[in-house]
Amino acid sequence: MSNSQFSFVQINIMETEGENKKIHKWKGKDLFDLVCRTIGLREAWFFGLQYTEKGSVAWLKMDKKVLDHDVSKEEPVTFYFLAKFYPENAEEEMVQEITQHLLFLQVKKSILEEEIYCPPEASVLMASYAVQAKYGDYDPKIHKPGFLAQEELLPKRVINLYQMTPEMWEERITACYAEHRGRARDEAEMEYLKIAQDLEMYGVSYFSIRNKKGTNLMLGVDAFGLHIYDPENKLTPKISFPWNEIRNISYSDKEFAIKPLDKKTEVFKFNSSKLRVNKLILQLCIGNHDLFMRRRRVDSLEVQQMKSQAREEKARKQLERHRLCREKQLREDAERARDDLERRLLQLQDEAQLANEALVRHRICTKKYWKFSSKVMPQNYKLFRVGKGTAAKHVDLSTIS
Prior knowledge:
This protein is of the alpha+beta class.
């Protein structure tokens, strides 16, 4: 069929194979909703479909036809289902386990690819939670040295900082991993995210800009507001504009303006390299600001219902985990008791074998003694020891009639 009738898109979701879909006059929302339904995601407001537009990152617009975007009409188009907006507090905001899992995978990938700076100690601890999430409780009988050899767990920058072998890194990670016993996958992933959300670069989208003096700067957009950075330091902003202190954000062509609520504060103006970059910045500003305001309102009925269902599901899973842990403990106790009995049985068998061997040796020695005695003494010559101590004497019975 010709591309005028339909086009293919490929949807890539973290840790899944891409899936091809035929689209014909679909809007962005139709495709996005299909993906959300397919994976059972209800907290759709955190996510979007990302693609590449002329070498730049772009997000599928919900109200625009998919084929009206600047995408190939001849080859399959690849969209990446990713978090577009990040929660302020992952533990309080995210309700569904699938939401948490997808964010965990994305953040872990960003840290390993060094898009998010993570110090060494935090890297090791987070790696141990990632191992707990994947492998479950540490068991030295199963998780033997080398079991993490093929895993990518630490940023290369961290590895290169120290003169440590892969075996030494594994030992450090495993030592932390062993302490997480009893944590389910979702709990380990949440602990990972709780550490990640305190990292300076977590959830920040960066853009190269220039102020009105022509100075090169970086703009950061995140859940808390807008931040201006020196290009050489993306960790500490030179100035920040929290969402609740911004009156208005606007752009005209390539010029962008941030107007603070405080009229005494100067309007901050900057330029980006391309018009499409300004459009993307505005998209992220609107979405993050909407979520910022939403967090400070009473939850909608839908969210309240989701949270109630999530609490019930969590309680059910905890009961199930406790039951499984109890069964596992009883099974381990029974196995230990069986092993003790088997060891005792083997010990008794060894003792019996030793006693039997000693008895056999005694019989052999006795037999040899009597055989030797019969050769040395006449057949009718028998000595009996009579009396005790020094008064004892031998009597030759052959002389007694």
